[in-house]
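Structure first, sequence second, as always.
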């Protein structure tokens, strides 16, 4: 029996469009046999090596997402607290080195409209961060930023927000600081 681990990234939209990123681990033979099926769901399919390497690759994605979302939340809440227009900042940053897919998706679709309906829930991200931290310990790799992101997300879940989108880092920091990163009123 052949086996592939093939976790995906790209959310519900990527699944519907068949454009998911697929992180694959398994033998070359298994990958060759399964590639037709993977082509149906994925726009970017990458074979990383033996079984388990697909999962490790996916965990790196989740580690980066968690850390970037926290950094984005801190930056935008700081900006709003100091009088900056978050839409103007977003538009400018998307042309700067700080631009990221997280920013591109989160700011206009979740943060500015203050809609944290889950595309990828906090609880699911916490599962992945826990796995990444376990792999880091087993591998002897300190994962400082991942541990900090995990602590923030643990706090968010403890508030009863585990079913919200993982962009809820904004919501938590907004609550602490007393500002909202939202679309400015016209006028």
């Amino acid at each position: 029996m052949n086996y592939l681990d093939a976790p995906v990234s790209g959310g519900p939209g990527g699944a519907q469009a068949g454009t998911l990123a697929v992180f694959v681990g398994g033998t070359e033979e298994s990958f060759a046999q399964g590639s037709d099926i993977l082509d149906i769901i994925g726009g970017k399919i990458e074979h990383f090596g033996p079984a388990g390497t697909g999962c490790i690759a996916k965990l790196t994605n989740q580690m980066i997402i968690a850390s970037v979302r926290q950094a984005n939340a801190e930056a935008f809440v700081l900006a709003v607290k100091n009088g900056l227009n978050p839409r103007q900042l977003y538009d400018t940053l998307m042309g700067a080195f700080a631009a990221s897919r997280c920013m591109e998706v989160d700011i206009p679709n979740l943060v500015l409209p203050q809609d944290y309906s889950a595309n990828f829930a906090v609880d699911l991200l916490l599962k992945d961060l826990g796995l990444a931290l376990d792999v880091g310990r087993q591998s002897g790799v300190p994962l400082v930023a991942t541990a900090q992101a995990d602590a923030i997300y643990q706090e968010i879940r403890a508030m009863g927000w585990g079913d919200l989108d993982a962009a809820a880092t904004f919501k938590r920091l907004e609550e602490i600081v007393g500002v909202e990163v939202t679309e400015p009123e016209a006028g």
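Margin note: The mean pLDDT is 95.
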